[in-house]
Structures are given as structure tokens and as C-alpha cells.
Amino acid sequence: MPARWSRRRPASADDLKSVVYLCCPVQCHEGWAFLSAGTTFLKGDFREDGDRRLLPTRQLDFHDPQTARIFSETHDLGAWVVNYDELLDRRQLQNQKVRVIRYKQSATQGRNVVISSLAPLGLLRAMVRSRMDDMNLGLDEAGMSRLAHKLIEAANDVSGDIVLRAAKRGEAASELIGVVLSRYLARHEMEPSALVGWYFLDDYAAWLGAREETQADILALSPRERSDGRLELTIVVTEAKYVGSTILPAKRKESEKQLRDTVKRIGEALLGEGNRLDRDSWLSRLGDLVLDGIQIPAASPVNLSEWRRAIREGQCDVRIKGYSHIFVPTPGDGPNPTYISAIPGVEDCQQEIYGRSELKTLLLAFAADRDPTDIRHAAGAQPATTNYWTMPESSAETVPEVESPEPPFATAAAIEDNSVGAISEMLTGVGDQAEPDAIRAIVLANLREEEEDVAWLTTVAASTRAALQQLSLQAKSVGQTLTPNSAILRFAGSANLTVEQVMRKRSELLTTFGLNVISVRPEPGTVAIAVARPKRRIVTIEQVWDRWKPQRGDHGNQDIVIGLKEEDNSLLTFSPGALHAPHTLIAGSTGSGKSVLMQTILLGLAVTNTPQQARIVLIDPKQGVDYFAFDTLPHLDGGVIDTQDGAIDRLEALVGEMERRYKLFRSVRAANITVYNSKVSETERLPTYWVVHDEFAEWMLTEEYRISVTATVGRLGVMARAAGIYLIFAAQRPEANVMPMQLRSQLGNRLILRVDSEGTSEIALGEKGAERLLGRGHLLARLEGEQDLIYSQVPFASSDFIESIVDHLAETYRV
């Protein structure tokens, strides 16, 4: 637990003194009496008054010629100088024109490790300059040199550790550029006059309870005082990647996770409900960071000590937001990767991906000290919210009650009390006539809680462990999870327990021990074995939607929840508009739940988009028998198409629409539909098109249809993503004679339900495993951008539920 009150005295930006109190600056009456008595030995007959107290201190003063000479001579002796000292402050060294290479603070007071240097950074400057040369910015020699120098200086202003890493490892020079640009974007979202402290989180990793390189990059703290005297604290967290297009999918997910984890850790500590034991610790740390990182002129009226005290006592309103900034300097084979999207699972956080052309524009704006806000908005970035939340009362202080919005971070109990809030938020703003309460009532009427069979989980875990040991396999249990379809049992991996060894014993586990092993998957350090439940739990769409909080902007939503992941019961989000491939293949035999999955996708699109934001083209060779309930859906474009001629005409019309859109994009210099919609007026915005073709293989047996559609869909598959046209094709058996290899390869996402054979699984999924699924919505997903296969359960939507939702939407939009 850090000290309640920091003993470091606030200092101005240009101060060459560093002062540390030798006792706590806050005392009880007896403590002040003792200190006053001690003061009389130095000051004679000292009389204290109510506003002025004297404290014993230690100080380091660079005005002292001897002190300044010692530091100068020390840096002359070595390239790097290491100080382990509680007085030396980073600000003092920077005022002496000394570069701080590393600053490790592990406590609120005590000794800090400071590594400083006056050595030149010629090699690092050359590496940064090389990366700028690759961007073809069009600057002259002097301009390129100034830009490289400016990037390094800006990085050193945040933390010398960034510069140290870049000097040691060439690839870290890219990290340096990314961190600097991330700070540049975040700074210009704040008011120009705002006081901001910037902190490289790895410098404070141990202090904040995390490991280096596992959290976000930058923390910014910006306090300001309102007219009524109350303090507002804005906390901005950013995570940056500067990566090539070939590794973009993996790095995008990594950056998203690091940001989400960091924001959640801070948010739950400050704003979570309940009397957390570590809240005082966090408030103390933030107060000390404000004191340590914000530099003010000596004549400034701002009292940082009072601000620190207000934060420490929870007497301030807090706003937390986060950004994952990804910069892609290399051109890729696909469309422009520039994309802005909200990060699921955390509020007020978004991911901004900038392709090569947008990155060039940002670098030129940075070099010229221009505001990049217009560049961000052109890419689709949404304005940040302005909500502040009042922190719960400190355990030791009384905080006045202030009327404010409900905090975004709540405990599990609070979430349970507000169990149907998510669906209301999902539909907020779908139109002037939207009625979220009606949808909420539908969900409430159908929502039923299912109890988990904990006793069975315990029994099957023990049985599986004993069975593995009897089969001469090592079985050290490290965890277990109960899912709707199975128990996932995790055992420590070893030479005597591998995935292959367990797979070879599947038959014996079933016939001898009665354990139906659905899958065996490798995980870091563990082997995860999924054993089927004797009685599967039905997952309803009401239960899934109850947990779904879609991030909707002015341009609609393309992230659809389609099930629960088996690995951790989290939501499986299908995102062809951003995170995953634009086009999708769905396969599954009779009774696998294929139609239920497609209905889930259609409903998810309809409730999170207006008809002006998303249009659905539905093709069904079965005369639309599975989609009667969708006949009045206002998003449906032209009704259900149930003839081959009608399907051919509609697909060819979409090719024409795609070409028309590219001409519109060119007229406003937009790379994709998101950028285009952000540049034009609301009436000129284009909707996304979702082409859903059920039983695709049925009509592909007809030669005329196969020839026509193969060519048409081939063009859409290559070029439709940027135009906002997404294809979803479903078939029972997507074999080569009905679905050519080229066409199948363009459907990058694979949502595979149970199939009838290993061969069909290999064709549809690319490997075996789908033939062992349990049917009725048991899903195996291979999504482009995700490293592993994902087992999940598709939720069931009853006919009454579908009709209720469609009727409500039809009434809302007056169809």
C-alpha cells in the first residue's frame, strides 16, 4: 500500500530544485505541536499560525555549482549514468539538457532508478529516417532530418525507455513512431490550453500491478477545475502498433486486448461499485502521477497540491477513454485497411487503423504541427463522449454527493440488477419512432435463467482425470469450464499428455469410460478436452442479447453476435465489416442448425441498423419456407427471392451498384464506404448490402445458373468489401462440383455446423472436426484474423420471438 500522502514537494516546470519532506505533510494536532517544538531549535522562538507550517526537508539544488559540476563530470565519464536516488527528479535532468533514458518508479516515495545520457543517437536517428524514407513523404533532406529528430524528441518527452528500446532493437524504432503518433492524436483531442501529464505505462508497470509489454503504452492525465471549484480528471489510455500489412490481423487483436485490459483495470479500480480495498491506493497513485508529470510555470495560479489532494480523497469527477492506434506503413494486396471501430467489452474505447496513405498524411501533419482532427474524422472516427462519472466514496473520506451519470464499470451484482439494459441500449437511436421498451418487454417475457450442473462438472472432471491415468496418460488438472454443450477440462501439457495422444484414445474413453470427447485443443501449457454433456443446455437468443452491447455509430453496425464461445462462455462476434473477411460460407447438414444461425444473423442486423443503414438481399431456393416471419422486415430489399432468374438479376444489379459506388468514392477521394459516409451529408450516405443465399448448392447444379452466378459472385467476392457489400452463402455440402474452388476461397469466414463426414468437414472447414459436432447449433468457426478455430453454440430464436421483433420493427418503420 503506498503512503497516504506523498512527501515530494510540487515544483514548477523550470525549477532546478527537488525537495522531499522528511515527514508526512499532513499531521494531527499533536504531530504539529511536536514539529513546531523541533522548529524552535532552528528558528528560535517560532510561532506557528493556522496557514503556515514548516517541515524538515532534504533538497537537491542544481543552482549549487558543486552539485551541477558533479553531474556534468559524471556524464563526461560515461555514455550512460545510473542514479538510484529519491531526490533526483526527471524534470531536473531535462532542464539540464540531459536525456533521461530510463525512469523506473516502483513506489510513491523512496528511491527511483534514473538512467541518463548525453551520448548522441546517430544510429537511432538513421533507423527512424530510413522508415520515413520508405513512406515517400515528399520532404526535402532538411525536412526529413527535422522529422526524424522531432519523432525522437517527442518519444523522449514521454519516456526515455522508448528511445532506449529503439536504440537496442531495430524493430523498436517502429514502436517509437507509433507511440509518438498515438500521443499526437490523443493530445489534439484535448483543449489546447489543457494541462496534461504523459506517462509511459511500462515505466510504472510494477507500481500499477502489471508486467512490462503486457499493457497499453501511454497514460495521459488531464485535470481541470470547473467554475464551481470541483475538479474533473480526464484519463486517456492509448496503445500503438506500427506494423506491416502481413501481420495486421494478429497485432490488431493484440493491441485491442492490451487496451481493453488496461482500461478495465483502471476503470474498475476507480469507478467499480463496492468498497474496494485498493481504491485508496489507486487514488493515491493517480494523485502522485499528476504531481510528477504535469509541469506548470512558476507563476501559474494552479495549485497541484490541492489537485492531488482532491484526487486522493475522491473529490473529483472522472472520465476514462481509450484508443488503439494501428499504423500500417506497407501497402497490402487487399483493400485499404483504414478503419475505425468501437472495441467490444469496454466503454468509450475505439480502434483506429490507418493505412499507408492516411499514415503519410498524419506524418506530414505532425511535421508541420497541424491539427490531425480532420484526418481522423475523414477516416471515420467518432467524437468522444463528454460524460464524467463521480467516484464512489473513499473508504477514509466523505465525498459530497454529486448528481452524475451511472458509472460505466459495475460489479457483477450491479450488472445482474440491470439485466435487460443491454437490449435497450442496442436499439437506442434506431429511428425517431424507435421503441426500445417494447423490445425490452419481449426479451423479459422470454428470458429464463438456466442453472449450471455444477455437480456433474465436478464428477466428469474427476472421471476424466482417472480415465486418463488408467490409460497411462499424465493428468494434472489445471481448470474446468462448463459450457452449454460440454465440460472443458484443462490438464497440464507434458510429454505424457499431448493432443495427439488423447485423440488416439477417444474410442476407449467413450466405450470404456462413457466419456464422449468432442474436441481436444492445444492451449499454452495445457491440453483442453471437451466432454459432451448428457443433457445440453438450450441457449436462447434472449440470453445472448441480454449480454450484447453493440457499439453503434452514425454509420450503423456490422458486428453481429452469433453465439457463445465454449472456451469461456464469452460472446462470439461475427464482424465481416471490419475484423474478419467480408464474405462467409455457412455449411451444415439437416438438423445442424444452419437456418437458425442465418436467422440469428438477420435479426442481429435488423435490430442494430435502420433500413437506411443496412439492406438485406435474401435468396432461398426453398420458396422462403424458413423465412416467412421475415416477409415484413423493413430491411428486406425486394422480398425473399425464390427464382433463379430473380437471383441472377439481383446479383448482376449488385455488381452495377458496386461499380456505381466506386465512382462515388472517387469523386470525394474516399477509400471505402465508411470514409465516404463520413464525408457526405446524411441524405447521401450509402447503406451496406448483405446478400444471404440459402441452399446455394441446390441451384448450382443447374449449368446456366452456375455459369452466370460464378462470374458475378467472383467479381463481388474480389471488390465488394470496400463498397459495403457482404456475401453470406449457405449449403449442406459445399463440394467442388457445386462450389468451385476459386469461389470457395473468396468466402474467407467459415461458420460450419455439424456435417455428415470427415471429407465434407475438410472441404468446408479445411480440416477434420466438424463431423463430431453435436448438431442443433453447435458451431465450429474459422474467422479470418483469428488464430484458432472457435467452438461455440448458436442461440435458438423461437418463432414467437422472431415474429415479435419483426412486427415491432415493421411498426417502427411503418412498413
Short description:
Among the domains are: 1-119, no CATH class; 454-532, Threonyl-tRNA Synthetase, Chain A, domain 2, CATH 3.30.980.40; 541-646 and 689-812, 3-Layer(aba) Sandwich (Rossmann fold).
Textual characterization of the structure:
Helix content is 39%, strand content 19%. The termini are far apart. By secondary structure, the chain is α/β, with parallel strands linked by helices. Among the domains are: 1-119, no CATH class; 454-532, Threonyl-tRNA Synthetase, Chain A, domain 2 (2-Layer Sandwich); 541-646 and 689-812, 3-Layer(aba) Sandwich (Rossmann fold). Strands 18-17-26-25-24-19-23-22-20-21 form a ten-stranded mixed β-sheet. A hairpin with a 7-residue loop joins strand 25 (778-782) and strand 26. Helix 14 (421-427) runs antiparallel to helix 15 and helix 15 runs antiparallel to helix 27 (799-812). The chain is built from 27 helices and 26 strands.
